[in-house]
Design a protein that fits this description.
The chain is 33% helix and 21% strand. Helix 5 links the parallel strand 8 and strand 9. The protein is of the alpha/beta class and 211 residues long. It has one domain: Class I glutamine amidotransferase (GATase) domain (Rossmann fold).
C-alpha cells in the first residue's frame, strides 16, 4: 500500500524545512519507494506564503481521518518572535493542535523540522518524549514537558524531530532509510549531492550512524 506523506504548509513556514524533505521524498518515490508526498494547508486556500516570500499551491487541507502515514511539521519565525505567522501562530492555533493530536492518535507518525518541534510540543505530542528543535529554541523546548536532546535527528518511533532547517533533509533521508532501505537512501543522497550527517538519536538514547 502506498504511504502517504503530508507536509504542512502554514503562513510563514520556513521554506527549506518543508521543501528539503519534499525533495527527498519525491526523489525516493521516483526511484521506487511506494509513497506519495502532498503539501497540505491548515485551511482551504489557493496559496500559502512562506517565511521568505515563496508562494506555494497546496494539494489539499490537513484534516484528521485522512489516513496520512507521516506528517511533516515545519517551523518558521519562532526565533524572531513573530506571533502573527509562522510556528508561533501555528502553536497557538487550537484547531490545528487538535488535528495534530487526532492524526497521531489515528496512527500518523508526526515529524517536525526546526521549530516545528515547538508546534508538536504545544500539541502535547512531545510530553515525556525525547525531542530536538532549532538550537535557538532549545531553551523554550526545555520549558515544555519534552525531554530535550542534543542531536541532529531524534527518532522516537511514531514521533521524529529534527533540529534546525537543513536537518530536515537528514531527517527525511533517515526516514527513507528506515522505511525503504539504505541502498535507496544512498541513491537519493547521491542524486541530491548531499553529504549526510550521522547524528541520529534513536529510542532509548542509542546513537546510530546513518552514513
Amino acid at each position: 500500500m502506498t504511504d502517504r506523506i503530508g507536509i504542512l504548509a502554514f503562513e510563514g513556514f520556513e521554506e527549506l524545512d518543508a521543501v528539503g524533505p519534499y525533495e527527498v521524498f519525491g526523489n525516493a518515490a521516483k526511484r521506487g519507494a511506494d509513497l506519495r508526498v502532498e503539501l497540505l494547508a491548515t485551511d482551504p486556500t489557493d496559496r500559502v506564503t512562506a517565511a521568505y516570500g515563496l508562494r506555494v499551491e497546496p494539494d489539499g487541507v490537513l484534516a484528521s481521518g485522512t489516513g496520512l502515514d507521516f506528517l511533516v511539521v515545519p517551523g518558521g519565525g519562532w526565533n524572531d518572535g513573530d506571533a502573527d505567522g509562522g510556528a508561533r501562530a501555528a502553536a497557538n492555533d487550537e484547531d490545528l493542535l487538535a488535528t495534530l493530536r487526532e492524526c497521531h492518535e489515528a496512527g500518523t507518525t508526526l515529524v517536525s523540522v526546526c521549530t516545528g518541534g515547538m508546534v508538536l510540543a504545544a500539541a502535547g505530542v512531545l510530553d515525556g518524549r525525547p525531542a530536538v528543535t532549532h538550537h535557538g529554541a532549545m531553551s523554550d523546548l526545555r520549558e515544555t514537558e519534552a525531554e530535550a536532546v542534543d542531536a541532529r535527528v531524534v527518532d522516537d518511533g511514531d514521533v521524529v524531530t529534527a533540529g534546525g532547517i537543513t536537518s530536515g533533509i537528514d531527517c527525511a533521508l533517515w526516514l527513507v532509510e528506515r522505511e525503504y532501505g539504505a541502498d535507496l537512501t544512498e541513491r537519493v543522497a547521491a542524486t541530491m549531492e548531499y553529504e549526510r550527517r550521522s547524528d541520529i538519536c534513536r529510542p532509548g538514547g542509542v546513537d546510530d550512524s546513518s552514513s
